[in-house]
Design brief:
Layout lengths: L23 E9 L4 E16 L2 E12 L10 E9 L5 E10 L2 E10 L4 E4 L2 E4 L4 E2 L3 H6 L12 E8 L2 E16 L3 E10 L14 E5 L6 E7 L4 E10 L8 E4 L1
Parallel strand pairs: 9-10
Antiparallel strand pairs: 1-2, 1-15, 2-3, 3-4, 4-5, 5-6, 6-7, 7-8, 10-11, 11-12, 12-13, 12-16, 13-14, 14-15
């Protein structure tokens, strides 16, 4: 089943119930190429309050770094930023500065939802009223009411990336208990449709587990990549909006 995208559904206008300014979540990235996972890097996501164009906004920064000892294999130095309107959770500005192997990309996009356009360093592009960027979509997805969906349902949304509109979706896979390197959790499981890039293949290959509580923080991400596979586990957090009630056991 596929839910139709409209101005009133989950990926258009919603209230933020899951995160707050001051939240910091840290991750370890494990790489597997010969059947053994090795500690290959770290990632972090930080939320703060700011104003953009005199509008209250969340400023969210996502950082990803490969460990220096593995830089010779595949060096990663990624920085993603999004400025999200606190009222609508729509992105206002997106910044990407990435270095992945020999690939480098700098991107700046300003969104004008009322005019249904996005302006990047390369031009002006039409968008729909429900557009997200690659980072804002993570925080928007944390506010989906999964209780209204059945296992296998597709939840569609639109993402602007690389000066293109991509109509993609999240497939809801239900609830399960998961054991990570941090602990044991009640979790919500889904698969996002990926856009093919320098590391990830396209399609429904990534699996994501988020905490089955009001925080909805990502607990584990698993995905094949161009060579081998990665597993990303949440390893620390600060200033969550609610107690992490989904955690059943701490390792």
């Amino acid at each position: 089943m596929s839910i139709q995208l409209s101005e009133g559904n989950d990926f258009c206008i919603t209230n933020n119930f899951s995160f707050q300014a001051g939240e910091v979540i840290t991750y370890k990235v494990f790489y597997n190429v010969i059947g053994l996972y090795v500690d290959a890097g770290t990632a972090s996501f930080t939320v703060s309050n700011t104003r953009l164009n005199n509008t209250p906004a969340y400023h969210i920064v996502g950082l990803g770094t490969s460990n220096p000892s593995y830089d010779w294999i595949f060096r990663v130095r990624d920085r993603y930023e999004t400025y999200i309107d606190t009222a609508s959770l729509k992105p206002m500005r997106f910044v990407r500065q990435v270095e992945e192997g020999g690939f480098r990309k700098d991107e700046l996009v300003n969104f004008f939802h009322d005019e249904q356009k996005a302006i990047s360093t390369k031009g002006t592009y039409p968008i729909n009223a429900c557009m997200q960027d690659v980072l804002s979509s993570i925080y928007f997805a944390r506010n989906i009411d999964f209780s209204q969906y059945k296992i296998g349902d597709k939840i569609p949304f639109s993402m602007f990336l690389d000066d293109q509109v991509h109509n993609i979706y999240i497939r809801f896979l239900g609830k399960e208990v998961i054991k990570t390197r941090y602990g044991k959790f009640n979790a919500i499981k889904f698969k996002p449709m990926l856009i093919r890039g320098t590391i990830f293949e396209g399609g429904e290959l990534m699996t994501v587990w988020v905490s089955n509580d009001f925080n909805r923080i990502p607990l584990r991400i698993e995905s094949p990549i161009t060579v081998g596979s990665v597993k990303v586990d949440m390893m620390g957090y600060r200033n969550l909006r609610y107690p992490l009630r989904s955690m059943m056991k701490f390792n």
